[in-house]
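Data card: per-record layout.
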Amino acid sequence: MMVLQLIIVLLALYIGSRYGSLALGAISGIGLVLLVLCFGLKVGTPPTDVIYIIIAAVTCAGMMHASGGIDWLVQIAEKLLRKHPEHITFYAPFCTFFLTVMIGTGHVVYTLMPIICDISLKKGIRPERPCGVASIASQVGITCSPIAAAVIAFTTISGANGFNITVPQVLMISIPACTTGLLAAAWCSYHRGLDLDKDPIFQERLKDPIQYEHMYGDTATMLNKNISKEAKRSVYIFLAALLVIVIYASFQELLPVYNEVKAITGAPDWNGLKPAQVAKAGLVIEGITQLKATPVKMNIVIQITMLAAAALMIIFCKAKPKKAVSGAVWQNGMVAVVAIYGIAWLADTYFSNYMGFIQENLAGIVSNYPWTIAMAFFAVSILINSQGAVVVSMLPLAYTLGIPGPVLLGVFPSVYGYFFIPNYPSDIATVNFDRSGTTVIGKYLLNHSFMMPGLVSVIVATIVSTILTQIFY
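The structure for this 473-residue chain is written out next.
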């Protein structure tokens, strides 16, 4: 039964990934129906705290997008790339990386990628070199963003399992580790493939006037777009909101405190009511309940700060809510919410019912080789195409198996593995944006333009992250 039910879980993830978009979460519902209603397993718990944070962050980023703020950020990145076109293989991935770090989603790459392709092609640089690693970088940035689901989920779940770590502390490990990995991937990509003047396939395409016009006829740019003062203001509001979150996360003694009625441990019943029931009713009874100063939780601070920033953009930056919900940032963020909701619920339902068996059979292996959990994270990511979903579905299992928090922080970059099979939207879009035809999926599926930079980036980042956690934890 256990193996059969695991097959159901994996099939749900696989089929959902094939359909993509909302199907990832929706098809997990079929798995839940089978596990709960047919096999009688106890239903698990969806990660509501993480979901609420994602909704608030995506709403804020969507409003900034509707205000034109993301266009301004892309314009700044384009100015840098056009100023140093000869180094675009290094600069392009760091532009997409830091855009993702700021916005919390890698889908901002769709605006910048055509520009990267255009600059490299016009400079005579093989576009596959910057495009492949830039697409990878746009997803690597998720583990380095203070408002990304993966980071928030890691801190929330870790705190619930005794490893109290803040968002800034995670970023102090993940940012240097991931930037080192991207630097290595860019270096490996610098002379990748044949130069355009020596590539027989590309040279053959140049002989066709239609193909030549397609490649060199237009210029992809954002520099001619007028950026309003409201657009710039929305970026300032967004950055201010991020600063507030980082300050509270770094100095949690600044968090507001409120009085909460708590039951006294070992207290007797009162008028037929248990102490917990008395506390829930808000009654303060001597010897039964007491007032206790409780700081506001960090996940609440993130939510209200992001929602307040979104409101300020509506009022002061002319952000249209209808435009926000029709934009790519908000839509893709909501897709991530549904995916995490369904996948994490399905995974928690399965693992919570067999946790005793899993601990008994895997505890020895994990205790001797705790780093092997990185392989599990990577493999699950290939299946479900979401770093946040990997964290919320697999991290509780890792803690239950007894893996220390610092080890899990060290392997955090390994939650990105969905470049392995090139079906992710940003990778597909990059192939289509490259008019030279050098960025490819490959005849044998796995020999695609994203495999090498993806593997180099994730492996190097995981090694560096592990070294840093051993030094500081």
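Known properties of this structure: The longest strand covers residues 257-263. The first helix runs from residue 2 to 19.

See the next section for split statistics.
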